[in-house]
Structure formats: C-alpha cells, structure tokens
Write a structure and sequence with these properties.
The chain is built from 17 helices and three strands. By secondary structure, the protein is mainly alpha-helical. It folds into three domains: about 45 residues; about 70 residues, no CATH class; about 260 residues, Receptor-associated Protein, CATH 1.20.81.
Length: about 400
C-alpha cells in the first residue's frame, strides 16, 4: 500500500514524499527510521491503467515460486546472513512483481522490529497458516534454516502430488467437452438438413431415428434458451459452491464419486499425515498442529473430523482414539498413530504413512490414466456410431427402395 507523508527533520525542515508499506504504522516507522518526525500520513488510492489492472489481476505467486524462495532463504540463513538482508536481497532479485512487493514489505516490517512470522502473516493469500506456524517454530527454536528447508521439501511434495491428481482429470474433462461440442454442432447444423430429406421421403422412420431428429429439433429451436439455462445454471452452481453449504456439498461429492473419491481420500490423508509429521517434528504442539492442519487440508469433511478430534484431544483423549471413530479415517492409520503415541515416535510414523498414501495416490493416478483412454474411445465410438446409424440407415433404405 502506498502512503503520502509530511514530516520534519531535527532542524524543522519539512519534507514530503511517498512510502510503500503494509500499514500506516509500518509506514510511520519507516519514515522515523530516517530521522524524521511524521506530521501526517495518508493512504493513496493508486490510479492504474487498464493494462496495469489486468497485469495485477493475473499476477500471482505460484507454489513453485514459494518452493524456490524457501530454498533460497534456507541457504542464506545457513550462511549466517541476517534476516533483513535476506529479504532485501531476495526482493531485489525476484522477477515476480507480486512476490517482490511482498518481500519488500516484509523487509520493511522486519526493519521496524517485527518478527519474520508476524511479517509473513500479513500476507495470508501467499503464506498459509501452516507456513507461518512453521516459521514461528523455527524462530522459537533458532532453526530457521532447517525449517525453511523443510517447508521447501513439503511444498514441493504437495505440489507434485496435487498436480499429478489434477492432470489426471484434465484429459477426460477435455475429451468429454470436445465430444459434447461436436455432438451439439452435428445436432444443430447437420442433422436438421438430413432430417428434412428423411421426412419428405415419407418412409416410416425407426424409433431411434425419431429420437435423434426430435432431439435435434429441440436443440435447434431452443438453442438460445439452452445456452442461457446452462450459463445461468453454471453461474448459480459457482455461487452455491462458494457458500458453506455448497462447499460442503462439493467436498462430499469429491469423496463419494466412484474411484475419483478414493483418489481424493488418499490425497487428503497424505496431506494430513505430511502436515502433522512436519509440524510435530519441529516441536509444535499436537493441538496447534491439528488446528493448522484443519485449516489447510482444503476439504470441509476432513476439516470437521480434525476439528472434532481437537476437542477430544484437549479433553485428554489420545489422537488415535479421537480419530478412530470416524469412517473417513482408515483403521490402519489410527492403529499406526496409536503405535506412534505409545512409542513416542509419532512424527516418524506419520511421515511413513504420508509416503505410503502418496504412493497410493500415484498408483491410483497411473491406473486412472491407463483406463481413461480406452474408455473414452469406446464411449466416443458408441456415441458417434449411434448418431450416424440413426440417420444413415434410413438413407440407405431410401436409396435401396429407389
């Protein structure tokens, strides 16, 4: 955020200028650091061109960039470089304008006396609660270099796992969309012309041909209403998915779809085990680790399970007993957690479970990819074959009669 200020120095010489900071307090502190007394500080509404607004809209910080940033900061901390200098250096060398601006703001906050975790928490759209809590634990244990290295490894694992799962679903979505578009074009542009010839011939048409012609007639006559209905339905579905009830419905749907649901279940279990393992291994308390994991698991069903488990853990129950009663948590996971709690090796066991479920997700994705292509080919062949048969058979009968 940009601020305009008016200030005076020790000789009462006035000075005016602008300063960029996350808050007015941070901006005042920056000006005072230069030896000036602030008289006024006002936020500026920046007028940007349409092109600049579009660039800001599409600019963001990817998971890959956060991984690289975490690796760099871990290396610099290991080399005993001061935190302020680290963030100044990374800000000056970063090519992403959004991340560059954020790192500059963080550096300003550090110069004003803020801790790293507190400075990062001012940017929740980039740094998750998990990330911030891990940094806070590193500050408390003086192991920031190791913590940032852990974070880079963790984010890299999550990025690869999530990307692989999403990419497995892109191909069938693309094929189905293409199929629907092609069939719609045939029904609205090609079939009506053929239907006119068949109708004028006066011959008795098979029932499946009548169905195709009827469907074509409906789509041709009401194409505008269909487009409006689909656009409106898509809009309301999107708005509904943003509500609590809609989000809950979508999260439950993800877990209930055959095969896809199993894939998502294992994906969320991987995330839970990996989060808890990383946080517990870095000295974060069980309750705090569960609270952070509930916030970043990205599924309301599992968030509710973890929230209920937190209440039971606070009441004195073990984590294994708290999660064992929920069907979303496999029995093997709760049993392994119980062993980890009894042996005092819970972090290591959770990491083993995370690797196990990650392999399960990879296997499920590979199997899905292997099945998608032949299934899509068969379905497309049947769809196109039925459509062509319904119009070609009457034409063949017509030509045979002639």
């Amino acid at each position: 955020m940009l601020f305009e200020y008016k200030a005076i120095d020790k000789n009462n010489v006035s000075r005016e200028g602008t300063v960029e900071a996350v808050s007015s307090e941070s901006a005042i502190s920056r000006v005072q650091k230069e030896g000036y007394t602030v008289i006024s500080m006002t936020a500026v509404n920046e007028n940007k061109s349409l092109l600049e607004l579009e660039i800001d809209w599409f600019s963001g910080v990817s998971n890959k960039e956060i991984v690289i940033f975490s690796r760099q900061i871990a290396t610099l901390f290991e080399a005993q470089v001061s935190a302020l200098r680290v963030f100044r250096l990374l800000a000056s060398e970063n090519e992403n304008k959004t991340l560059k601006k954020v790192l500059s703001t963080v550096a300003d906050d550090l110069q004003s006396g803020s801790s790293i975790s507190r400075a990062l928490s001012a940017h929740p759209d980039i740094f998750s609660p998990f990330y911030i809590n891990m940094v806070r634990s590193g500050e408390e244990s003086a192991t920031l270099d190791k913590v940032f290295d852990y974070l880079a490894s963790y984010l890299d694992r999550q990025y690869q796992l999530t990307s692989k799962a999403k990419n497995a679903l892109i191909y069938p979505a693309f094929v189905i969309t293409t199929f629907v578009v092609v069939m719609s074009l045939m029904l609205t542009l090609v079939i009506p012309r053929i239907a006119q010839i068949l109708t004028e011939s006066g011959q008795e048409l098979p029932i499946y041909t009548k169905i195709v012609i009827g469907l074509s007639s409906f789509m041709t006559n009401y194409i505008g209403f269909i487009i409006v209905f689909l656009a409106g339905g898509g809009f309301f579905a999107y708005r509904f998915s943003k509500t609590e009830a809609g989000g809950r419905f979508m999260d439950e749907l993800k877990l209930s779809v055959p095969y896809i649901g199993t894939l998502y279940n294992k994906l969320y279990l991987t995330r839970i085990c990996d989060n808890l393992s990383t946080m517990l291994s870095n000295g974060i308390s069980m309750v705090q680790a569960l609270e952070v994991t509930a916030e970043v698991v990205d599924n309301r069903v599992y968030k509710e399970v973890l929230t209920l488990a937190i209440a039971e853990v606070k009441g004195g129950r073990s984590l294994a007993d708290a999660i064992a009663e929920y069907p979303e948590i496999p029995g093997v996971l709760s049993q392994m957690v119980k062993v980890g709690e009894e042996t005092g090796n819970l972090g290591s066991i959770l990491q083993t479970l995370a690797k196990f479920y990650q392999r399960e997700v990879n296997n499920a994705v590979e199997t899905l990819i292997g099945l998608i292509e032949p299934v899509m080919i068969v379905l497309l062949g049947l769809g196109v074959g039925l459509l062509l048969t319904s119009v070609l058979m009457p034409i063949y009968n017509l030509t045979s009669a002639i």
